[in-house]
Specification:
alpha+beta, 3-stranded antiparallel β-sheet, 2 helices
Length: 108
């Protein structure tokens, strides 16, 4: 099944998903919201975020590689399908990362 996860959105807008899948999606949200070395007890967790402050046509492929590698290491139950940048609702100049992931039906 395919789900969209947005950075800094840990509220979980997946009402029909099983509890196990919601936990995985929460881990994905945490991963894409965390800059590497910023987690005190696990400095390796997160993304390098080299895509920040780059034009979208440059940032998108960099973010895709970083997210795919991060998912492979930290959330192997989810695989990357696509990424996009969306405008933040309250701040029109700010963008958030939206990641579409696939989670195997075997987890249901």
């Amino acid at each position: 099944m395919r789900y969209v996860v947005r950075s800094f959105d840990h509220s979980g807008h997946w009402p029909d998903a099983p509890v196990r899948v919601i936990a995985i999606l929460g881990r994905v949200a945490n991963l894409i919201s965390t800059r590497i070395v910023s987690c005190p007890l696990c400095r390796a967790f997160g993304l390098p975020m080299r895509f920040v402050d780059k034009p979208e046509n440059v940032a998108k492929p960099i973010a895709a590689v970083e997210v795919a590698e991060g998912l492979r290491e930290w959330v192997p139950e989810a695989s990357l399908h696509s990424i996009s940048f969306e405008r933040c609702p309250g701040e029109p100049t700010k963008h958030i990362l939206a990641v579409e992931v696939d989670i195997s039906d075997e987890l249901y």
